[in-house]
Write a structure and sequence with these properties.
Elements lengths: L4 E6 L5 H10 L3 E7 L9 H9 L4 E3 L8 H5 L5 E5 L7 E3 L5 E3 L5 H13 L3 E7 L12 H12 L2 E9 L10 E9 L3 H4 L4 H4 L5 H11 L1 H5 L11 E5 L4 H7 L7 E5 L2 E5 L27 E2 L2 H11 L2 E6 L5 E6 L29 E3 L2 E3 L3 H7 L9 E3 L5 E3 L2 H10 L3 H15 L1
Parallel strand pairs: 1-2, 1-4, 2-3, 4-7
Antiparallel strand pairs: 5-6, 7-9, 8-9, 8-11, 10-12, 11-12, 13-17, 14-15, 16-17, 18-19
Helix pairs in contact: 1-14, 5-10, 12-13
Length: 425
Amino acid sequence: MKKQLNVLELFAGVGGFRVGLENANREFFHTKWANQWEPSRKSQDAFDVYNYHFPNSININKNIENISDETFLNMDVDMIVGGFPCQDYSVARSKKMELGIEGKKGVLFWEIIRATRLTNPKYLILENVDRLLKSPSKQRGRDFAIMLASFNSLGYSVEWRVINAAEYGRSQRRRRVFFFVFKNDTPQASKMNSNSLINNLDTYEDFAEYIFETGLFACQFPIKKAPYKNRISSGFLEQDIVSISDNFVGNIWNTGVMHRGRYVTIDTKQDSSEAPIPLKDIIIPAKEVPEKFIISDIKKLEKFKYLRGSKKIERTSKDGYKYIFSEGGMSPTDSLDLPGRTMLTSEGSLNRSTHLLYTEGVHRLLTPIEAERLQDFPDNWTKFKKNENGEILEVSDRMRMFFMGNALVTEIVKMIGDGICEIEK
């Protein structure tokens, strides 16, 4: 086992990947570089929080597109991690036959590919919203197929899994897709080098043992040993990603692997015996809740009642088409006996997605500490920041909730980190 893996954290936010990996093994996972940049914002609060906690790494606060090739080439990177924006990744050719990417933020995935090509890491761990697997709506699975093909062109294999954190013992019903990307010359890749190469097959059976038994996600996040409703897809990704962008047709399910261009993807159900953490186990005592999080205004409570209730509303589209917008009802308040719902960046505002609690006779919102606990961060992780002048300042509650809505469940990252430590052994 190597003494440590040098880590580059991209789209770092307030350090969720780093927190999770250091909880797995602080000595082994050594984050040497981090990049965080929030476009269209003068104040770089997330970077300032990261810089407050991790002043000894090389923290880069600039648009990743402006990080030079030379900078990446000078990094001795063993692993890249990051949760990148989910946008449109369709590909087209310019008149000079060069690849171009449609969509303002879609280019950011190609920056991960650029960083991978220049630093040549052994591993990558990436995270995104689970709808990525079905994006775009007009050509399901195309964006993900482009990503798989891009890593394949660089000599990497990929396994992926949609993980609901609550199904593996955590306190939030947060579903995210995680990628584990590894070089084709690693021992991990050799686990898939038998029938799929010898017989040139692309069948489910070729990869079943890896998916259910020997893969990183199989070991760390157990699943039932059969595809759900027999949902299985497989195929071969051609090398021309423009052709994939134009022509890809197929289902990408919540579990799968890609090795040397061949992929198998199946729908699976978790098989964990670990019970989730209910809200009642993470909330702070009512006497410690600041008054600003208590809701006593009848008008606000009535607004929440309306937002959380079922409704059917006639609306008119931009082109004049009338349609009925319908929404199902939610419980009046969030059950304290269940794990929290998925937090969004709007958490804490007067919004349907906001958690509304009823404890000890009062209605209230989540506090920033409770939001941090839902993401498995230490209490008050986002309370302070260090600006470019070295000043230590407090972060607003609104920004703290925004950070947590953008973050990931760090204990899921820890479990992935535990799996990589076992692989390295």
